[in-house]
Design a protein that fits this description.
Layout lengths: L1 H11 L17 H19 L5 H15 L3
């Protein structure tokens, strides 16, 4: 049975034309969309409040120096 599932997946991923559409058009009501958006904003707002690690700052500085240096 597992082999059959793998074959179906291989056929689905083989490049058969789908006309750019999925089997069903998934839609969310506006309330669900708002809740998801609110949760994503809350998660990323918290992430954006965290300081940038020193190592990332050093790497960015190195990239800036290379970009501004002789070409």
């Amino acid at each position: 049975m597992t082999g059959d599932k793998g074959n179906k997946l291989a056929r689905a991923l083989s490049g058969e034309p789908t006309n750019g559409k999925l089997g069903t058009d998934a839609k969310l009501d506006s309330g669900s969309q708002k809740r998801i958006g609110d949760q994503l904003r809350a998660m990323y707002d918290e992430l954006m409040q965290q300081p940038v690690p020193d190592r990332f700052k050093e790497l960015l500085d190195q990239l800036d120096r290379k970009k501004d240096g002789p070409q």
